[in-house]
Specification:
Length: about 350
């Protein structure tokens, strides 16, 4: 065979390859998915940078908004609480140290507002969560139009505070209110709800109960529907009725959810502001003529925007923040205790 015939029989592309080696075309086809050396290295670096930075870029709007509208005002409030600052002259600040806090803790108005806050929170939170638990238990069974009932329960939550408070102000009117009319039917004298100590707090708490019961009921309902049906079937086989199943199956399984709603409701009660402000009318910022339902939120608003003492108002705000931190710490301790108790059972 001549040299030209051998060249035609063995192409140049396969010349010099050892047995078992892949031809150059196959190697090039196999390596198409890899970045080419040289000019494409910057694309590889850009790709790696994109994979690392994209998650942070996606969540950065939250941190930007949180920093601008929450963190910076919080720190600025802490700075104000250590100074003598008046609303009419913000550029004239003098260092006060802890004087605002000392004056605050020695003020009877602060302790009165703190007592009112906790009493209104207690009166509104306990009935609210009990009613929400009962409603969720009722809706957990098959009912006609269950979707309609769930929407109806969310209606108070979607109602504005101003509209709800206006309706309840008319209901608790001392002369022409429906509540006093119903009390008169059973022989009870009319109550001046706005001027009474416990009466005014009951009236304000009723607004909170009406607005938030349905919201918490839907939270409980979602948690109940996540409970395995096998537990109820086993309890029914053992002869447990509905009440026993609710007490021995539903309540233990709902402990984390109940704890969550208790903490959230307590935090919300600490920040109650709109309901007593609108319920009181002209004397709303004072919490009544005798400060009988003035909460910490109202006291802070009164000191900051009515009196104009921003330093003291900032100290009240940080006192509320510390109270919320204590509530969060108690929540953590109770959660760990429940977790350990459940683990040992």
């Amino acid at each position: 065979m001549t040299g030209s015939e051998q060249a035609l029989t063995h192409p140049a592309s396969s010349a010099g390859t050892a047995p078992g080696d892949q031809p150059g075309a196959a190697r090039r086809a196999q390596g198409r998915g890899r970045p080419a050396p040289g000019g494409s290295s910057w694309r590889s670096r850009l790709y790696r940078w994109d994979m690392k930075a994209s998650p942070y870029a996606f969540i950065s709007p939250f941190f930007v908004i949180f920093g601008a509208f929450s963190l910076v005002p919080l720190l600025y409030t802490a700075w104000y609480s250590l100074h003598h600052v008046q609303l009419s002259s913000l550029d004239q600040q003098t260092w006060a140290g802890l004087e605002n806090y000392k004056n605050l803790f020695s003020s009877d108005f602060f302790w009165n507002a703190l007592r009112n806050t906790f009493s209104i929170g207690l009166i509104s939170t306990v009935p609210q969560l009990l009613a929400a638990l009962w409603l969720a238990h009722m809706l957990n069974y098959r009912l006609r139009g269950s979707t309609v009932w769930r929407v109806v329960m969310l209606t108070p939550y979607a109602t504005s505070v101003a509209a709800a408070t206006l309706v309840f102000t008319l209901l608790f009117a001392p002369d022409s209110g429906m509540i006093n009319w119903l009390l008169g039917l059973v022989g009870v004298d009319p109550v001046n709800w706005r001027e009474s100590d416990w009466g005014s707090q009951l009236a304000v708490s009723s607004i909170v109960i009406w607005r938030w019961t349905g919201y918490n009921a839907l939270i409980y309902l979602a948690a109940m529907q996540a409970i395995p049906a096998d537990l109820y079937e086993s309890a029914a086989i053992d002869g447990a009725n509905r009440w026993q199943q609710f007490r021995n199956v539903t309540i233990p399984m709902l402990r984390p959810t109940i704890l969550f709603t208790v903490v959230v409701s307590t935090i919300g009660a600490t920040q109650v502001f709109g309901e007593p402000l609108l319920f009181g009318g002209v004397s709303g910022t004072k919490g009544g003529s005798e400060h009988q339902y003035q909460t910490l939120g109202l006291y802070m608003y009164d000191q900051g925007w009515i009196v104009g003492n921003l330093g003291k108002a900032s100290a009240i705000a940080w006192s509320m923040f510390l109270i919320l931190l204590i509530i969060a710490a108690l929540n953590l301790l109770v959660s760990r205790w429940l977790r350990n108790t459940h683990a040992h059972q």
